[in-house]
Model the fold of this input.
Amino acid sequence: MLKTIHSFKSIALALFLVLSFQLHAQDIHYSQFGRSPLNINPALTGLFKGDVRFIGNYRSQWNKIPVNYMTFSGGVDQKFINSSMKNSLFSAALYLNHDEAGDLKLSNTNVNLSGSFTRRLSTKHYLTAGIQIGGAQRRFDVSKLQVDSQYDGDRHNSNLPTQENALNSSVFYSDLSGGVNYRFQNFDNRMKLDFGAAVFHANRPDKSFYKNGNQKLERRWSYYGMTTFGIGKIIDVGLQAIGQFQGPHQEILVGGTGKIHLNQERDKELAFGLGLSYRLGDAWVPSLAVDYRMWSVGFSYDINSSPFNIASYRRGGPEFSVIYIFSKVRPPKEFEICPLF
Done:
């Protein structure tokens, strides 16, 4: 009977390990993807109204199952306007992503530096190209690893060797990504439209934990469209869609938002927004956002609609975002160089 129980536990553990390692073959993702722009395209670096932007994102997913996720991102991007470069500007960003899941604390931490070049094609049209370079560390807690060789005939004994000598608990790799973005904007009706495409892990780095392994990280292709436009004096409507494809994995998310400007007086701006998105075959995502002066705070919650809701009880998990934009007063001539909305 003990052997039967042990065999069942071994199978369950092996399945858990396989799931943990395979699930992390897919990159992080946010339901509020427009509020984590540097994770969908390096070409979105510097595309905001202001001079310096600080962004923070946090996501907790599937807390009701063993392989739960915790994801955090934080970064800053800045424009560098040169008066001698009329209709053009450079921008740069530094940001960090950290993802962790399961009892083994399987994690991936990467730090990235991105740069972009924006060219104003005409009064309302902009084209941006961006590139990203970085490094990542993938690791797990080997002290929590349990394998058959640690079974002493009666129970699991953590003091026994795992005999996994070819297995590293940590691996580091370099990363390269790039993308392009087109923007149309119209100040008269508060309209902004972005279309873009990007490829992440273009160099396909090796992420294997085994010393002689060769597990190439699949490229992630990102395609998206985002628009907002004003209706009357105080209402904005937004539409957004994204498709991300990485090996056998894919994510398609579509949604809409509505925003009401409660105060548009300078330095007292206040707006409140509601949204609803749908991740195809997976989850509904209601969201809300509050904008006050230079701050913007967002919250959303994934409600699972896939067959996986049997395990998750439809509780996909919450997601938070915060954005702070610093703007300095510029003389009219400098503002006219590249007045990004």
About this structure: The two ends are 69 Å apart (CA to CA). Residues 53 and 157 are 51 Å apart (CA to CA).
